[in-house]
DNA sequence: TGTGTGTGGTAGC
DNA sequence: AATCGCTACCACACACA
């Protein structure tokens, strides 16, 4: 159905349909709520207080049915009419409880509450906030704004001002009260008090209202002023602030009772923001933000992208020598955190999150002297040294110092290879070895870094990477070691190497060391000299081979101080050695699920992250591995580490995508399917870890599309509140062009319906066929079913296979390319048999890839990044929310979305439409709750016209597009 | 004999 | 309150044709 300007204009201007219907439902709800509330207030309050100076409860006529204080609460148009106010109140309280409690009951039975629009209200995020704090801040801001509106409303309505009895108080209500929380809320706000919806340390709550407390809460609240609701009522009656002590609920804490002034009270840290469990949309971000290991891996990648250089000047020339500097900070995290906290570095220090079963990321040498090691749990370390000081992570500082480190050294060497945030290999290729020069260079570097970063580094210098590593080991801490043997000095090298421990060698960790010791038992292999002496006879030499051919050969070379092929290529061709081959996300902490849907949601989120990472590096993957950690049968339900994985069985499964892809909607179903295969017959609650790896990566060769659009210049948000500036260069996206495109490319080949396919089998094995059908990915569906289409002439003609050259030329270049591509796909599909598609070898791989990999992105106002697009749309909506969208802007948006449909950009379409729905819904409920006051029987002037127009745009034009996505 | 899959080890703090 | 046990890469054993 083509859309045109008049069409849109008409629908935006007419106010009939939505206006009346939504209005009706609101009216009905309000009146019901009103009625029941009057009843409610008289019935439930034993002694209706006569409030001479303040407000009466009946004057309030609270409408719990309308979500005044919780404007994104349950949809009232469906619930309000049939629910009485008490239930409604409970519901609100439920929602409220959910909002600030950190329990694991967030999920409802059927679905993940975070994603069910009806149930997720407590955690719905109307905008994409960067973090939970931002979200909360915004929420609190909105709530305060609502309070202000309320006051204005009442003052206008009753034509009086309310005495500011509760000025300078900040009140939080806990649990069920009488009068209800909402009634109290209004009373407090009207009389000048501040009302806190949450009990966070930032809000500085002065009083808590409660009628009874659980024993746990009694302890938790013992430092607060906990007061009974009568305090509010009688204070209002007395028209002054009565002594709260007379109404105190908890009488045991004398300290607080003595304080009479109402200032802010130090709230307990324990009531901080709720913890994010793994079902929270922000869990991944919050986890990664705090994970040291995640930081380490990401940093390595970033630093290599930024600071690696390879310039092996005549590295293979005989006369050119190679000097390898292995530079490494001493106990990096511990040193930096120690500096940040002004700790004395001679005292034992360790960096960790927690106190008990928390990993020590790094400890200084003072701590090591007690036997404390990195990776040890704090509890054990404290046993070894009770005075151990635990410092928090300072990720920003680590990264900053690392940046300085590489910047300072970059120009000093021919080759720079970052290996970690604090550790790198730096190589010079001099013609002659100048021992004095080398040691001076070491000292210079150490001095330079010490003054610039206040940290000490150690340096190992040699002519092979192994020897450099070993030199570094002996140089630590805070020193440097140069060992540059001549070719003839084999014995000296062997002696040097022999003085180290087994695990000092690269690629030998504790497991391999144990294995070696087992091989040679009963003689214990502690030092490399032990190993060297054991290798003299052939039989014992052969023992080493049990480690595996590759590793044993490596070790033999290392024992002679020589590099193996790995090390050599690492040094000589670092860009090749470190080229990206896989991409993965591993989560083995905080994984606690109750339902399979939660797992699916989680996988969706992980895959979405991976997909966007892939896109950002312009790559696609054709193979995935999903790895699960399940707690072992006999191990305790909860491991010692809080939310840890404990002892687990680990299983994995690899699978392939139908072709190289970086699309969310292709990858996610495939991976979930593998998850189902892998996770058989076990309670979902036993899942402790999930890891998803994408491999077989391929770079997108078709760079021109991406580079044609200069992404860097696209961030400016000028010309607002207009959605698109009225500049000539934006004109190409006009009606006629789009409509032409519409005629040219009829439909992108989408999934044919499965119904026909399955009819035959249904009788035989119904369950199985459904199972089979369900487990297919959309992409595979398409490939598998395509041939059927081909056999139907009608379906074939559905695709127009010729391009209208003239029409094409009028389109912008990007679009021309897109369309040509689309035609290439259609033609290829038309000419390909199913068997060929299933056996990719028969088709040239390149052709196959062009089908579902690297479909060029569709720009919106030159933006490609979904987040940028939604950000722009958000601004647009916000600035036009009260007066409605401009017709041409709305048109532009709808056209864009239609193109997404057309080019089968499902994930993008879903993302944007969902986002728009969320946004508009948010504003609608905001204005509704603000204007929905029973005192004003007509809501018409309260609700801005604009919001109705937005609603109409959404409901009539945008949401249908989402539904059309599955239409062939 | 080659190919693919699942498992397990290592590195950084 | 606790706690943030990642991630890229290689090598091997084994299964299968």
From TrEMBL:
Q: Where is the composition biased (Low complexity)?
A: 101-116, 754-766
| Any single Gene Ontology cellular-component annotation | nucleus
Question: Region (Disordered): which ranges?
Answer: 64-86, 99-123, 749-784
Record-level Gene Ontology MF annotations:
damaged DNA binding; deoxycytidyl transferase activity; DNA-directed DNA polymerase activity
GO biological process terms held by the UniProt record:
DNA repair; error-free translesion synthesis; error-prone translesion synthesis
Q: Domain BRCT: where?
A: 161-249
Q: Which Pfam families match?
A: BRCT_2 (PF16589), IMS (PF00817), IMS_C (PF11799)
Q: Where is the UmuC domain?
A: 324-509
Q: Which PANTHER family match?
A: DNA REPAIR PROTEIN REV1 (PTHR45990:SF1)
What is this protein's record name? DNA repair protein REV1
Q: What is the scientific name of the source organism?
A: Saccharomycodes ludwigii
Q: Upper lineage ranks? A: Eukaryota, Fungi, Dikarya, Ascomycota, Saccharomycotina
């Amino acid at each position: 159905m083509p859309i045109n300007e008049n069409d849109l204009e008409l629908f935006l201007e007419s106010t009939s349909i939505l206006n009346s219907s939504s209005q009706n439902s609101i009216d009905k709800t309000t009146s019901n709520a009103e009625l029941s509330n009057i009843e409610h207030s008289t019935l439930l309050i034993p002694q209706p207080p006569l409030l001479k100076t303040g407000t009466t409860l009946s004057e309030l006529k609270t409408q719990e049915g309308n979500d005044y204080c919780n404007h994104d609460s349950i949809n009232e148009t469906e619930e309000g009419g049939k629910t009485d106010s008490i239930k409604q109140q409970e519901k609100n309280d439920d929602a409220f409880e959910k909002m600030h409690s950190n329990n694991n009951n967030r999920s409802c039975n059927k679905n993940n509450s975070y994603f069910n629009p009806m149930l997720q209200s407590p955690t719905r995020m109307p905008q994409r906030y960067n973090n939970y704090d931002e979200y909360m801040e915004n929420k609190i801001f909105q709530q305060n704004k609502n309070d202000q509106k309320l006051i204005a409303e009442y003052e206008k309505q009753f034509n009086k001002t309310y005495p500011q009895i509760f000025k300078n108080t900040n009140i939080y209500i806990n649990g069920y009260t009488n009068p209800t929380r909402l009634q109290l809320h209004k009373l407090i706000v009207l009389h000048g008090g501040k009302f806190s919806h949450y009990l966070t340390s930032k809000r500085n709550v002065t009083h808590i209202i409660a009628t009874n407390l659980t024993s746990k809460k009694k302890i938790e609240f013992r430092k607060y002023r906990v007061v009974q609701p009568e305090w509010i009522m009688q204070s209002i009656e007395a028209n002054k602030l009565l002594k709260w002590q007379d109404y105190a609920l908890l009488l045991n804490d004398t300290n607080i009772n003595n304080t009479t002034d109402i200032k802010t009270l130090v709230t307990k840290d324990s009531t901080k923001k709720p913890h994010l469990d793994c079902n929270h949309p922000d869990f991944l971000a919050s986890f990664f933000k705090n994970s040291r290991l995640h930081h380490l891996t990401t940093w390595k990648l970033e630093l290599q992208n930024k600071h690696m250089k390879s310039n092996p000047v005549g590295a293979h020339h005989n006369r050119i020598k190679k000097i390898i500097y292995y530079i490494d900070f001493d106990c990096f995290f511990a040193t930096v955190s120690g500096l940040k906290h002004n700790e004395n570095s001679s005292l034992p220090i360790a960096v960790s999150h927690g106190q008990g079963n928390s990993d020590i990321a790094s400890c200084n040498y003072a701590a090591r002297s007690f036997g404390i090691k990195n990776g040890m749990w704090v509890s054990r370390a404290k046993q070894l040294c009770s005075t151990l000081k635990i410092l928090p992570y300072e990720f920003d500082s680590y990264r900053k110092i690392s940046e300085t480190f590489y910047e300072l050294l970059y120009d000093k060497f021919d080759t720079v290879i970052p290996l970690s945030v604090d550790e790198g290999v730096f190589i010079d290729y001099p013609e002659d070895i100048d021992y004095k020069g080398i040691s001076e260079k070491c000292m210079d570097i150490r001095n330079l870094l010490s003054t610039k970063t206040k940290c000490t580094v150690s340096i190992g210098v040699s002519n092979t990477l192994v020897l450099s590593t070993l030199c570094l080991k002996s140089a630590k801490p805070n020193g440097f070691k140069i060992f540059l043997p001549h070719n003839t000095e084999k014995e000296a090298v062997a002696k040097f190497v022999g003085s180290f421990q087994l695990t000092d060698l690269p690629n030998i960790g504790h497991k391999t060391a144990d294995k070696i010791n087992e091989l040679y038992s009963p003689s214990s292999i502690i030092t490399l000299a032990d190993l060297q002496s054991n290798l003299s006879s052939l039989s014992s030499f052969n023992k080493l081979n049990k480690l595996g051919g590759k590793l044993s050969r490596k070790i033999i070379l290392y024992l002679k101080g020589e590099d193996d092929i790995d090390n050599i290529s690492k040094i000589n061709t670092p860009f090749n050695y470190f080229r990206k081959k896989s991409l993965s996300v591993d989560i083995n902490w905080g994984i606690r699920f109750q339902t399979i849907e939660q797992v699916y949601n989680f996988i969706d989120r992980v895959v979405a992250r991976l997909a966007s990472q892939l896109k950002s590096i312009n790559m696609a993957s054709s193979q995935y591995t999903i790895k699960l950690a399940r707690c072992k049968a006999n191990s305790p339900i909860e491991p010692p580490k809080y939310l840890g994985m404990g002892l687990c069985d680990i299983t994995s499964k690899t699978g392939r995508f139908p072709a190289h892809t970086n699309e969310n909607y292709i990858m996610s179903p495939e991976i979930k399917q593998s998850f189902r295969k892998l996770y058989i017959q076990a309670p979902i609650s036993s899942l402790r870890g999930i890891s998803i790896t994408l491999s077989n990566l391929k770079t997108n060769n078709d760079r021109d599309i991406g580079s044609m659009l200069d992404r860097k210049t696209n961030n400016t948000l000028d010309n607002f509140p207009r959605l698109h500036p009225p500049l000539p260069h934006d004109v190409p996206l006009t009606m006629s062009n789009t409509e032409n495109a519409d005629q040219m490319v009829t439909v992108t080949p989408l999934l044919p319906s499965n119904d026909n396919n399955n009819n035959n089998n249904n009788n035989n094995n119904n369950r199985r066929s459904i199972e089979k059908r369900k487990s297919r990915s959309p992409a595979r569906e398409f490939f598998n079913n395509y041939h059927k289409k081909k056999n139907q002439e009608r379906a074939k003609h559905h695709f127009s296979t010729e391009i209208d050259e003239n029409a094409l030329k009028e389109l912008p270049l990007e679009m021309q390319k897109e369309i040509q591509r689309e035609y290439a796909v259609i033609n290829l599909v038309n000419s390909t048999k199913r068997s060929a598609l299933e056996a990719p070898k028969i088709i040239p791989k390149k052709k196959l890839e062009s089908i579902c990999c690297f479909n060029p992105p569709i720009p919106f106002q030159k933006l490609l990044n979904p987040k940028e697009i939604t950000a722009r749309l958000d601004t647009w909506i916000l600035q036009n929310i009260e007066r409605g969208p401009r017709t041409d802007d709305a048109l532009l948006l709808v056209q864009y979305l239609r193109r997404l449909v057309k080019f089968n950009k499902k994930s993008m379409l879903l993302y944007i439409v969902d986002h728009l729905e969320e946004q508009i819904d948010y504003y609608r409920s905001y204005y509704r709750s603000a204007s929905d006051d029973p005192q004003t029987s007509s809501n018409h002037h309260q609700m801005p016209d604009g919001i109705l127009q937005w609603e109409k745009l959404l409901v009539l034009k945008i949401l249908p597009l989402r539904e059309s996505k599955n239409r062939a």
